[in-house]
């Protein structure tokens, strides 16, 4: 299993980012995918998840209305569109599936 997240960066409060996670080494379209985040000194937090077909999705209460998860099974990629970002959204974001966590991407929200 390989999961490579990208798309993070420095953004001002209120800004937007789209994270991507490219998967390989397994049958992507048979697996649900999830995004987690972890900020320094804080517990890991589930952000969002999506079913293998993309029909069903879960969003953390703290980020509902602020994020949209999607996937392109033809590209073995899952996305996390984020808008209205706040400083408290600063964290390393990474995607997971089947107990495997990929390399994360840093999101920093600061003016």
Question: What's a concise summary of this model?
Answer:
Helix content is 0%, strand content 51%. With 111 residues, the chain is mainly beta. Strand 5 and strand 6 (57-59) form a beta hairpin.
Number of helices: 0
Indicate the proportion of strand residues.
Answer: over 45%
- What class do helices, strands and sheet pairing give? mainly beta
Q: How many beta-strand segments?
A: 11
The overall average pLDDT, rounded, is 95
Oligomer: single chain
Determine the fraction of residues in helical runs and give it as a percent range: under 10%
Biggest β-sheet description: 7 strands, mixed
State the separation between the terminal residues, measured CA to CA. 36 Å
List unreliable stretches of 5+ residues: none
Please describe the topology of this protein:
Blueprint: E1 2-6, E2 9-11, E3 17-24, E4 33-38, E5 45-50, E6 57-59, E7 67-72, E8 77-82, E9 91-97, E10 100-101, E11 105-109
Parallel strand pairs: 2-11
Antiparallel strand pairs: 1-3, 3-8, 4-5, 4-9, 5-6, 7-8, 9-10, 9-11
